[in-house]
Amino acid sequence: MNWTLKSFDELTVSEFHDFIQLRLDIFVVEQDCPYLDLDGKDEIAYHLFATTDQGKTVAYTRLFAPGDYYDEAAIGRVVVHQDFRKDGLGFELMSRSIKEIESLFKTKTIRIGAQQYLKKFYESLGFVSTGHEYMEDGIPHMYMMKS
């Protein structure tokens, strides 16, 4: 895997297209969840992504500074192509996202809005449920924190 971190202004049109395609393939098509993906937050986020040697984007997250999404730093739009989920790529993606936030924003406190079925996965990375559960686009979610 080839890992890259870029601000929005550093992205190529092709890279951004690939992120949107991956996000739509997973969130809208696979999870059958039509939602407004372009939320105006891509421009203020850092984008961490993994590509294959052939250039295919297979894993992606958005990273936010404290105050840009929540009061705390945040990780969002966590997505791994379904053909790569059994290889531990999701854990590596989140581990790298955490390290990048610590380096970029000098904080260890991170908030996420996680799909409830992934609670144990995020707990394995040190996140703890805040007890606040909510529905987003018909999918049960919960806020989780890591400090």
List keywords for this structure.
147 residues, alpha+beta, Aminopeptidase, 7-stranded mixed β-sheet, globular
Describe this structure in words.
With 147 residues, the chain is α+β, with helices and mostly antiparallel strands. The protein has one domain: Aminopeptidase. Helices cover 27% and strands 35% of the residues. It contains three helices and seven strands; from the N terminus they run βαβββαβαββ. It has a seven-stranded mixed beta sheet, with helices on both faces. Strand 2 (46-51) and strand 3 form a beta hairpin. It is globular, with a radius of gyration of 14 Å. The two termini are 28 Å apart.
Short description:
The protein is α+β, with helices and mostly antiparallel strands and 147 residues long. The chain has helices at residues 13-30, 89-105, 119-123; strands at residues 2-7, 46-51, 57-64, 73-80, 110-115, 128-136, 139-146. It has one domain: Gcn5-related N-acetyltransferase (GNAT) (Aminopeptidase, 3-Layer(aba) Sandwich).
Structural class estimated from helices and strands: alpha+beta
As a percent range, the share of strand residues is 25-35%
Total of helices: 3
Average pLDDT confidence is 92
The largest β sheet comes out as:
7 strands, mixed
The CATH class name reads Alpha Beta
Rg, Å, rounded: 14 Å
Number of domains: 1
Q: Segments where pLDDT lies below 50 for 5+ residues?
A: none
* CATH fold-level name: Aminopeptidase
Based on the coordinates given, report the CATH architecture. 3-Layer(aba) Sandwich
Quantity of strands, as a count? 7
Order of helices and strands: EHEEEHEHEE
The CATH homologous superfamily is called: Gcn5-related N-acetyltransferase (GNAT)
Shape: globular
Between the first and last Cα atoms, what is the distance in angstroms? Answer: 28 Å
Helix content: 25-40%
